[in-house]
Amino acid sequence: MGMAHDWSRYWRSPDRPIEAMHAHFERHVYHRHSHEAYSFGVTETGAQSFTCRGSAHTSAAGMVMTFNPDDPHDGHAANTLGFTYRIIHIAPDLVADALQDATGRRTGLPLFVAPVASDPALATTLRALHVALLDPSATALRRDELLTAAIARIVHRASTKPLPAPTRPTRSTTVAQHARQLLHDRMTDDLSIDDLARSTGTSRYVVYRAFQAEYGLPPSDYHRQLRLRRARTLIAAGTPIIEAASATGFADQSHLTRWFTRYFGLTPGAYRQAAVAKP
């Protein structure tokens, strides 16, 4: 068997919270992670297997993937042939704007129940938007039209339900939330599970189980993801990669690069180029 050929091309809007990637992966394995944005993908060739919301899923050619913000998932090729896919990350505010009614009132954010859907028409719509985002000759007006149409179709055709109404938090939820706040407050510190336990007044076992149940990630993965997201923001703003690594608690640039690639599917250098590229 020949050498695997993984590649990825990334695009980031210079002025709006929307990003897109076109990639082919045979060997790359995504570490379990989530995005701050909605993520809508379409598999073009092959098949990608992943776990999300406690279940295993496979997205084959022509199928659509829908991830809610902060939906933990992983991903890898289903076989040695790999898979090619396009994915678009859209901030919740943009989704809300696209769904507002004729009076300008926001209709609320959707929650996607199924992370995979077989819908050729929706796949075609997503692909058209993705192609326009990466096309230097596409106008801003054309991109906005396709974005609005794609979001409307996704919400209309995909299985959705309203976001759940807030409920009184359980003890487990409160413990997880307090631990999460400590991770945010001390993002670059080398925290231990005992630090989380002390901050919540519980045992290390209680805080670990509560956090995993609430956020779908172990505290260590969540903490690393916070640092990676911050590093990505710094890199997009023009901070040199070695400085971004130091500012976010990574040992050096190579340490940041290893984890950045496992979470996002491209190197910090490639992301930097996408961040400064003109649309």
TrEMBL record:
<dbReference type="GO" id="GO:0003700">
    <property type="term" value="F:DNA-binding transcription factor activity"/>
</dbReference>
<protein>
    <submittedName>
        <fullName>AraC family transcriptional regulator</fullName>
    </submittedName>
</protein>
<dbReference type="InterPro" id="IPR018062">
    <property type="entry name" value="HTH_AraC-typ_CS"/>
</dbReference>
<keyword id="KW-0238">DNA-binding</keyword>
<dbReference type="InterPro" id="IPR018060">
    <property type="entry name" value="HTH_AraC"/>
</dbReference>
<feature type="domain" description="HTH araC/xylS-type">
    <location>
        <begin position="177"/>
        <end position="274"/>
    </location>
</feature>
<keyword id="KW-0010">Activator</keyword>
<dbReference type="InterPro" id="IPR050204">
    <property type="entry name" value="AraC_XylS_family_regulators"/>
</dbReference>
<dbReference type="InterPro" id="IPR037923">
    <property type="entry name" value="HTH-like"/>
</dbReference>
<dbReference type="Pfam" id="PF12833">
    <property type="entry name" value="HTH_18"/>
</dbReference>
<dbReference type="InterPro" id="IPR009057">
    <property type="entry name" value="Homeodomain-like_sf"/>
</dbReference>
<dbReference type="GO" id="GO:0043565">
    <property type="term" value="F:sequence-specific DNA binding"/>
</dbReference>
<dbReference type="InterPro" id="IPR003313">
    <property type="entry name" value="AraC-bd"/>
</dbReference>
<keyword id="KW-0804">Transcription</keyword>
<dbReference type="Pfam" id="PF02311">
    <property type="entry name" value="AraC_binding"/>
</dbReference>
<keyword id="KW-0805">Transcription regulation</keyword>
